[in-house]
Design goal:
The complex is a heterodimer of chains A (454) and B (319).
Chain A: H1 2-20, E1 53-59, H2 64-80, E2 84-90, H3 93-105, E3 112-114, H4 119-127, H5 135-141, H6 143-146, H7 149-152, E4 156-157, E5 168-169, E6 176-184, H8 185-191, H9 199-211, H10 226-238, H11 241-248, H12 259-274, H13 286-294, E7 300-304, H14 308-315, E8 319-322, E9 333-338, E10 342-343, H15 351-361, H16 364-372, H17 390-403, E11 406-408, H18 418-431, H19 436-453
Parallel strand pairs in A: 1-2, 1-3, 9-11
Antiparallel strand pairs in A: 3-10, 4-5, 6-7, 6-8, 6-9
Helix pairs in contact in A: 2-16, 10-12, 10-18, 12-18, 12-19, 13-14, 18-19
Chain B: H1 32-35, H2 39-65, E1 68-69, E2 77-78, H3 82-88, H4 91-124, H5 130-142, H6 145-156, H7 161-168, H8 185-210, H9 214-222, H10 227-238, H11 240-255, H12 259-264, H13 276-286, H14 290-318
Helix pairs in contact in B: 2-14, 3-14, 4-8, 4-11, 5-8, 8-11, 11-14, 13-14
The chains are: A alpha/beta (454), B mainly alpha (319).
Chain lengths: 454, 319
């Protein structure tokens, strides 16, 4: 009996707590308030005249080269503006991403904050008016000339957060990344082949490698997302860049079930069923796969530029990187983008100093400092490329894509649930649990539901 | 748990329900404070406050969140039971629940059956170095699950140990990426659970069996009982309590599995290995639908509660 009483009391107490507690989120700031959007002539660029201020910066540049670069930049900024004390708070990407919503709507809002540009993050914050529109600053500081349009589009949303890729600017980034094709020079020599200059040559290279009993493409897709970095470049061979951008940014007007998308999905499915991606890519983890590549498992590896330095440490000059061959519309288009953009919260106390800081860490000089510290700067990339090694290939590839071609968005930007939908669907496509038509339908369902709903 | 003490408390132990009356106070009359019916509650008050602040309050808040549509920041909309209604038609959620139930087989049933047999054998034969084996069997419980998951991910890899062994013995047809094949992924994850829980179950059962007086077995043997008869007539009934505890612990572990799935398959291939806890994480932090995530969490809590009340009731009634 006693236990029952106790349970009853407990239930009553929690019930009481339920009634007393206020509705979630209602005590936070932010909300429907109008986000600040200063025009270019209202922008104050004279930071030295602001007096002694403290600038609070939250970033996720914690890894080796990133951290070195930002520390060097902070030192230089302090020299230039002795009146500004920068208070830096850095944490891992995942930690920061999960706190961003709270940080933006709380009472102690940072002045500068790195906000992931996906719809689920930056998009929803823009819709809630939590971020400052930087268009005025961009004009005053000349960011529009500094950055390539396909780079700036990755941080642009319409004011209501509905359209991604155009409209107002809500952040700018320092570094770049690009998905391309790694190849082993020795393996190509052994196969008596050259680096492919067209997608047809890629396809025949894959066949030749398979005939020679080599694993054509190394892929570890247990984690679900790696296949997106293979499919992204591949899709550009079948679908024009503009359509992919529309699909990838989750804007209305495209269709996953179109013939060209089906052709792209069919190619991936064929690679999966023919063993071109290995016997069981879905059973191999991403971080177990690329070390196997350095040990000679695989002729090609299609993936992100961030793998280069680690793989080069093992493979040396054997490792090469190239942007994918020109795609459906004749220019190079591949998945890629920028590091996480720096934004100014709507409730920031020192927006003027924040903008000056962002300008400083993305200036031409800053790009050189980033390169010196081992990162890949988003601007002046070809100019700052090292003399040799895989990073030379990577810098040049990024420069070609960002200036002459199109940096396609990561496909998972499209809708808040698209990372899961696309990851699971491509996995099933490669594993043969679904066919290209079924995959196209699954992708269209998510994309269509989102674009029609918004 | 009072009704479980049918064997009676040790003769000199304090009477249950009056933790204040120790051996010493038995000599004189207990004071008025000690006799007050409220006194026991005073004793649990400090623990209850901590429990309330860190378990009951969050639970209540989660229940409240589940009635709202909320992104985790900004304004929220009251939707009543809408989130729960959505779950009813949500295929991912249903799959997660079914998977969790399948995992119970791997986490609870298999370790229990195998553990019972092994423990009974170990009890009969006087194995040398028993302490050593017990430690080895219990070891998986001590290792952080994230480490366990990473190790098993390597074992299950297409180029991993399991496939190497299969190839060595000529079973090439069976080799595959175990975690990447929809037919084997859930079983592969489940088997890691079996491996982890086996030690705990064995240890519980062994300690239970060691308490059975040897005379009982002697008597049974004189009556002509064989090893199997002995097991069902004496060993099994004697460890009912331990079986109940083992089931409760392992079923909870099965239903709230998160780290194993997160670190090995992230719910894949496709959605074949998703589990309720993973759905909670995914909905709260990836989709930013805190209301829906809370609803899943509440349903999961209720499920764990109901199943375990059932297990405990059956355990109590039969003993």
């Amino acid at each position: 009996m006693r236990r029952r009483n106790f349970l009853g009391t407990t239930a009553a107490l929690s019930g009481l707590g339920l009634l007393v507690a206020c509705a979630p989120g209602s005590d936070g700031g932010g909300g429907d308030s109008e986000a600040p959007a200063p025009a270019a002539d209202e922008v104050d660029t004279d930071v030295a005249a602001l007096g002694d201020i403290t600038l609070v910066v939250w970033d996720q540049e914690v890894r080796g080269a990133q951290n070195d670069a930002i520390e060097a930049l902070l030192g230089a900024f302090k020299e230039k503006y002795p009146n500004v004390t920068v208070e830096r708070n850095s944490q891992s990407f995942d930690d920061l991403q999960q706190q961003t919503g709270l940080a933006l709507s709380g009472n102690e809002v940072p002045d500068v904050l790195q906000v992931n540009n996906a719809r689920g993050d930056m998009g929803s914050f823009v819709a809630d008016g939590l971020l400052t529109d930087l268009s005025g600053y961009a004009e005053a500081y000349g960011w529009t000339d500094r950055f390539a349009p396909s780079v700036l589009s990755k941080m642009s949303y319409s004011e209501d957060g509905v359209t991604f890729g155009e409209g107002n600017l809500y952040g700018i980034a320092q570094t770049g990344e690009v998905c391309g094709i790694y190849y082993s020079q020795k393996k190509l020599d052994a196969l008596d082949l050259e680096a492919p200059t067209s997608w047809d040559e890629v396809f025949s290279l894959v066949e030749a490698a398979a005939e020679a009993d080599e694993l054509p493409i190394n892929l570890g897709n247990l984690d679900q997302w790696p296949a997106l970095h293979v499919f992204g470049p591949l899709q550009a061979n079948f679908v024009d860049a503009e359509t992919i951008v529309t699909l990838g940014m989750g804007n209305a007007g495209a269709d996953w079930t179109s013939d060209d998308n089906l052709a792209a999905l069919t190619q991936l499915s064929d690679w999966g069923s023919s063993g071109a991606l290995g016997d069981s890519p879905n059973g191999l983890a991403y971080d177990d796969a690329w070390p196997l590549y350095t040990e000679g498992k695989g002729v090609l590896l299609i993936g992100g530029s961030w793998l280069g330095p680690d793989m080069e440490a093992v493979m040396g000059e054997d490792l090469r990187f190239m942007a994918p061959p020109p795609g459906a519309d004749g220019t190079v288009a591949t998945t890629g983008g920028t590091g996480i953009p720096f934004s100014i919260p709507a409730a920031a106390k020192n927006p003027a100093a924040a903008a000056a800081f962002i300008d400083f860490i993305t200036s031409d000089d800053a790009m050189a400092m980033i390169a010196e510290n081992g990162g890949m700067p988003v601007n002046r990339t070809a100019e700052l490329a090292p003399d040799s090694g895989v990073n030379k290939d990577i810098y040049e590839a990024f420069d070609t894509v960002s200036t002459e071609g199109t940096l396609l968005p990561y496909l998972d930007y499209a809708t808040p649930s698209f990372a899961d939908t696309a990851g699971a669907t491509l996995q099933e496509l490669i594993g043969g649990q679904t066919d290209p038509a079924g995959a196209a339908e699954a992708l269209q369902e998510d994309y269509g539901e989102f674009t029609e709903g918004s | 748990m009072e009704s479980r003490s049918t064997g009676g408390p040790p003769a000199d132990g304090p009477p249950e329900g009056h933790p204040g009356t120790s051996l010493g106070s038995r000599r004189g009359r207990p004071s008025a404070v000690a006799r007050s019916p409220l006194t026991p509650y005073l004793f649990i008050l400090p623990a209850f406050l901590v429990y309330g602040a860190f378990a009951l309050y969050p639970l209540g808040r989660a229940a409240q969140f589940s009635l709202f549509e909320w992104k985790g920041f900004g304004p929220s909309t009251f939707v009543g039971l809408g989130n729960y209604m959505d779950l009813a038609g949500d295929e991912d959620f249903r799959r997660a629940i079914v998977n969790a139930l399948v995992l119970i087989v791997f986490y609870s049933v298999i370790p229990l059956v195998v553990g019972l047999v092994l423990a009974a054998i170990l009890r009969r034969g006087q194995v040398r170095g028993m302490g050593f084996f017990r430690t080895v069997i219990f070891l998986p419980q001590v290792i952080a699950l994230v480490v366990v998951a990473v190790a098993w991910r390597q074992i299950y890899s297409p180029y991993g140990l399991l496939n190497d062994v299969l190839r060595t013995v000529g079973l090439d047809v069976l080799t595959r990426g175990w975690l990447g094949d929809p037919g084997t992924a859930l079983a592969a994850v489940g088997f890691i659970g079996t491996w982890v829980q086996m030690g705990l179950v064995m240890l519980l059962l062994l300690s239970g069996m060691s308490r059975i007086p040897a005379e009982l077995f002697e008597a049974a043997r004189l009556d002509g009982a064989g090893a199997i008869k002995e097991f069902f007539a004496i060993t099994l009934p004697a460890v009912r309590g331990e079986i109940t505890v083992a089931l409760v612990l392992t079923i909870i572990a099965a239903l709230k599995t998160f780290d194993l799935v997160y670190m090995t398959t992230s719910g894949g291939p496709g959605n074949t290995t998703t589990v309720p806890s993973f759905e909670v994480y995914f909905r709260a932090f990836e989709l930013r639908t805190v209301g829906s995530a809370s609803a899943v969490a509440i349903v999961l809590t209720a499920l764990i509660f109901v199943i375990n009340v059932g297990v405990t009731r059956i355990g109590e009634r039969e003993s």
